[in-house]
Design goal:
heterodimer; A: 498 residues; alpha+beta; 40% helix; B: 158 residues; alpha/beta
Chain lengths: 498, 158
């Protein structure tokens, strides 16, 4: 019998194993692929998540004038363009030596929290609710937003309108629905006038109510399926997130905090402008995506998790009333079991959505939004680093600009890259728990995808042309020959290749 | 004020022929009388686009497709439970189904104009073939807008 390796990253004797690929992983942004290597007894020897990364874009931006970056980077991704818009703007603030005016910072915060709200709403109501409401191996034909809309029309409607509200916040602060230009090096190019403010204010209380109800749905799902939710793909991880000076959750600005898997602080309030002193990016031959790690712990054990679960559990508090109340309930639930659970991420994500709705309301009541002092410029620098907590986790933009104002170097570490090893750990755990020794079915393979979707990975693929999103599962025999191929086309139909 | 006709283009201008739909919108603005028409653009279709269909009389989704017959296809899109969703992006039929479910009424008559594209890589330019398809699609769209009635548009469906 073939020896089974503990960590499932690399099989001892891959040459004799059959390969199953989930390609691409569905309901994530872009192209991800999972490969499993199994022996003749369906025992699993290797599990890997492979992802195409942003490197092409980093080249693409080189040679452009620095002031174009906040607009150009929005073309990275059709899902989180605003996050890149703001992170690039923060980096360019450094380039132009700016300290933001109160109006500029608050308009940007409003834009950012609008983005968090709409992104989290999309993920919970559209991408993961089919799994959570119907079950991971339920009828695949119904396990989608259309099925949710049929069975739970009110929930589906709230998802649409929450998302729409977030988009309206973005439209008003960024100036346009897409390709927004609102955030510029050194500030913003427009404020929020009274009419725009009142337009958003009329709906914001409803958004808070729906967000609170979404937190309740997420917590009830956890409570009703306690054993499953506690254990599904759960693993221990170090953490990285940004916090405010007083330790509060702050998704726009702050210092970096890292804790080890036992909760010991590795560093706190670290100035992100020197992130390369604490984070390094490793490469592995089987993936295009890098594997960041904490330098102090080294490449083997220094990987970490970012995102909603980390932020909610590792911030000292959330500075809005309802979200903080929800956080306290989350932390105390069942002796704290949700705080380390992969599926606890959904609950944490909804707490952040509630927080975002509260922040938006509070900002809308702030008269600084109507200020006229929009831009501040100081002494020109050659290097700029911008960091925010994007919907999926910490997002780092780093640029070097020459004396001709051209970008000559660009490095992005996006949330999904930070979570690369964490996602691999989650799917290996699921493979051990649910797939090892079993005959593979679509429902079992979906368990792998459920674990990945908990992280809401965003894989940089704003290309979406019709007909480009198939799923292919390929079965090969021990000699590597193809036994069977099942393909799911973009319109949802399955067909078997001869 | 809601305009009775919505043209919703999806695509990313930095990804080669994925720019076809946004470019078509831009050319329409320059060369066409657009009274009563709203032009919207996004990277990809999403659930909230169902809300953009409210109070419309006619809707056209414009997109680029790899498997589309050249130079373009034009067809009537209907709500369809079989159009399930595999990424953050939705098919037009899925947007229509979302509309049907949440507003509990049929969506407005909706059509898809899908232009054939060849290359969708980041940083690439529009291909020569795509430029030709774009010109033909512009002429076709202008013809549609001269007679904005579902009965007439049905006759153009391929």
């Amino acid at each position: 019998m073939t020896e089974i390796t503990d960590n499932l990253e690399t099989a001892a004797h891959p040459e004799n194993l059959r390969r199953v690929a989930i390609d691409p992983v569905s309901r994530v942004e872009g192209h991800g692929k999972v490969t499993l290597l199994l022996d003749e007894n369906d025992r699993i020897h290797q599990v890997r998540l492979h992802i195409v990364e942003f490197r092409g874009f980093e080249k693409f931006i080189q040679g452009r004038p620095y002031w174009e970056a906040p607009v150009m980077v929005q073309r990275l991704c059709g899902i989180c363009p605003v996050s890149h818009h703001i992170a690039a703007s923060k980096a360019m603030d450094m380039i132009v030596g700016a300290t933001l005016t109160p109006t500029a910072e608050k308009v940007r915060r409003l834009m950012h929290y609008g983005q968090i709200l709409q992104s989290h709403a999309l993920h919970f109501f559209h991408l993961c609710s089919p799994d959570l409401l119907f079950g991971f191996d339920s009828d695949v034909a119904k396990r989608n937003i259309i099925g949710v809309a049929a069975a739970y029309p009110e929930i589906a409607k709230q998802g649409v309108l929450l998302r729409k509200f977030g988009q309206e916040v973005i439209r008003i602060t960024a100036g346009k629905r897409i390709h927004g230009t609102g955030s510029i090096p050194g500030g913003v190019n427009k404020n929020v006038n009274i009419e725009e403010r009142d337009y958003l204010l009329k709906d914001v209380e409803q958004m808070i109510t729906w967000s609170k109800e979404a937190v309740d749905i997420a917590s009830q799902l956890f409570e009703q399926n306690l054993k499953l939710y506690n254990n599904f793909g759960t693993f221990k991880a170090h953490t990285l997130n940004m916090v405010r000076a007083d330790g509060a959750m702050d998704l726009y600005h702050g210092g970096l905090r890292a804790r080890d898997m036992d909760g010991n602080t590795l560093f706190d309030h670290y100035d992100y402008r020197h992130y390369w002193d604490i984070i390094f990016e490793d490469v592995k031959p089987w993936s295009y995506m890098k594997f960041p790690f904490l330098r102090s712990l080294g490449p083997e054990t220094g990987w970490y998790r970012v995102g909603p679960l980390t932020r909610v559990t590792q911030s000292d508090f959330i500075p809005t009333t309802l979200a903080e109340h929800a956080r306290n309930s989350f932390m105390a639930f069942n002796g704290g079991s949700a705080t380390g659970a992969t599926l606890g991420t959904h609950w944490a994500r909804m707490i952040e959505m509630l927080h975002s709705a509260e922040v938006i309301r509070d900002l809308l009541h702030d008269p600084d939004l109507q200020g006229d002092d929009l831009v501040n410029i100081g002494e020109r620098q050659e290097r700029g680093v911008g960091v925010i907590e994007a919907p999926r986790g910490t997002l780092i933009h780093h640029y070097k600009v020459d004396e001709h104002d051209q970008i000559i170097r660009c490095n992005l570490i996006v949330s999904t890259t930070h979570n690369n090893q964490a996602m691999n750990e989650a799917i290996r755990q699921v493979a051990r728990q649910y797939l090892d020794g079993k005959k593979l079915t679509e429902g079992l393979l979906n368990h792998i995808e459920v674990a990945i979707r908990a992280f809401d990975p965003c894989l940089s693929c704003a290309t979406h042309a019709l007909g480009k999103m198939p799923l292919e599962v390929e079965l090969l025999d021990t000699e590597g020959g193809r036994v069977d191929t099942l393909t799911r086309s973009a319109n949802g139909t399955f067909y078997q290749q001869e | 004020m809601t305009f009775p006709i919505l043209i919703l283009a999806v695509g990313n201008e930095s990804r080669g022929d994925d720019a076809l739909a946004p470019l078509l919108l831009r050319q329409l603005k320059q060369h066409t009388d657009l009274s009563g028409v709203e032009l919207l653009e996004d990277f990809q279709l999403q659930i909230e686009h169902a809300a953009d269909l409210v109070d419309r009389e006619l809707v056209i989704f414009v997109d680029a497709g790899m498997d589309t017959p050249a130079p373009y296809s034009f067809y009537h899109a209907r709500p369809d439970d079989d159009h399930t969703l595999f990424s953050h992006a939705l098919a037009p039929e899925a947007v229509l189904t979302t509309y049907l479910r949440i507003y509990k009424q049929p969506p407005p008559p909706s059509y898809v104009l899908c232009l054939r594209g060849e290359q969708f890589e980041l940083g690439t330019q529009l291909t020569q073939q795509a430029r030709q398809h774009l010109q033909l699609a512009l002429e076709f769209m202008q013809k549609l807008l001269q007679e904005p009635r579902a009965l007439v548009w049905e006759g153009y469906c391929i």
